[in-house]
Amino acid sequence: MPPAGSSQYFDLGPLQQLLDAGFTLLTPNQRLARRIKSEWDRRQLEQGKQSWKPIAVSAIDHWLQTRWRETGAADRSGTRRLLSDLQQAELWRQVIAEDGRRHASHHLLRVDAAVDLARQARESLLRARVPLAESAVLDEFRYDQDCATFLRWLQAFDSKLADSAALTTVDCAVELLDAPAATASPVALVDFDEIAPLYRAAVAAHATSVEAVASGQGEAVTRAYSFPDRRAELSAVANWAAKEYERNPDRRLGIILADMHSDRAEIEYLLRRSFQCLGENYTSLPVNFSTGITLDRAPVVRDALRMLAVAGNSMRMVDVLGLLQTRFSLATNKDDDSLVQLLQRLYSDGSEQVSTGRLRQLTANASAGDAQGLAIADSLMRVHTQRLNRQHWLPSAWVSAFCQALDAFSWPGSGPLDSLEYQQVESWYGVLESFAGFDALTGKVDYNQAWSLLQRCCQASISQPQTADSGIQVLGPLEGAGLQFEQVWLCGLQGSRWPAPARPNAFIPMVLQKKFALPHSSAEREWQYAATLMRQYTAGCGRLTASYARQVDGVPELPSPLLKDMQIVHKEATAEVYQAWTEAQSQGVRKLHKDDRAPPLDTGGGASVAGGSAILQAQANCPFRAFASK
Description:
The chain is of the alpha/beta class. 47% of the residues lie in helices and 13% in strands. Helix 15 runs antiparallel to helix 16 and helix 17 (395-408) runs antiparallel to helix 18.
């Protein structure tokens, strides 16, 4: 383990003998590969070197793709394309849509979920080397209607891949099994909790020898806490990180969230509050997050998509409100009386969807005093005159049309953009480039299809701020494996979440999932996965703190069985008051105004006024009945 107080997140010591022997290091993820490379470069600089040979380290997916290209398989039958995850999803979407038109036996309520599940099912089958050509295996699929439907999709998907000379990352590994090795060297598998049979066979076919090695050699001191709820647990973590940072800013701290998707936003807010980075110091938070937000949730990109949506027939009310008040356009009338009147008209319509034609009419006719029309009315009309909803173009042609529509709103506004927003705008143009690469896959599409595809491209792109490296890392369960810290806090270890419950794939027969031990197929499989990660965390730090919430969403929770050997200290919630709020309150000037006279009731010529204490009684008994009988 790296010495305390150093900035290292990986100790190359246990791997030095392998490096001297010429081994190539393979890691389960790109994050660990970057850490190993960073530590190697740091060592060379400390030795006073000005140039050096790069360390041979790579994430296993990237290594397999590189070997596939080196074998010449990419040019075996002309130009072959390696599909991205998003392009695979679009191909699955086409297959499912075509199958739905041919067979009326199913109706999907959530197409996106079916696409993701189908893609995962194919990858799991290939990685486990399930022999799909055997009749006994195919019969297992035909016994279940969902599995039989997926088998049709799978065959159609493979046919489309062959027709378009395309393949996926997993297909690269399949082809490597029979491809001659261009270059071979010994390989070390670093900190793998497990490796799929396909990947293990592909590595063995293109390496002179394979060794598995664990970098962590320590045994952490452990402790465990329980908290009344998730908020109290995450607040304690944030306060702990702030106090440890105050004691020693160079200390390496890891915060591992068992449920990164649900807890990321809240832990970020609480960390900013504990480090007092909610105001002017917003960009000074000394914390790195392993995951960002999807690009479509970034305000500058979210509003760009809203601006493009005005070319359609209707928009959601929430998107209209955001568009009228965006700061990423010059065509806005913030705080104008005419804007208030427009919002009142829209709310009085009481519709969730707003016709873009009516929106153009209302913005053009809105008036306040001598001013006629809102500034955004001209932008809406300029986009309307493009007649985008009547066009059928290739995605590459839609890019210029979308840029022209954004120019009508002067997006992204007069600025100034902060560093994060500037990075998000750059990511937006990168998404447009990837969007233009769908020409061969989708052909010509109409406006609605083009806008939906662009939105999915943004959802698939992660906005990760480019910040300086920090001593505090917030990680998901997989990202934290293999990294080495002085202290680690592992959050969210409720019994219902860690190990996670089994989540078998509905498109693969259960008998095959259990036979080939597919991911998430059984409780035993999830236990083994969680226990392996726990051992890696314990071996990679000096002190490990585990915690769980005794209640989540009103439901009582028990600790994870993996905490059975730890003595759990039960913590109670503490009343926390944000310091900045306390200071603002203490500096406020209070005035006492006595108002003991209300305006007189308008009785309409002496008529009695309905109501009184009876209506309060009715509301207490049954709010709906009180409303219906008023």
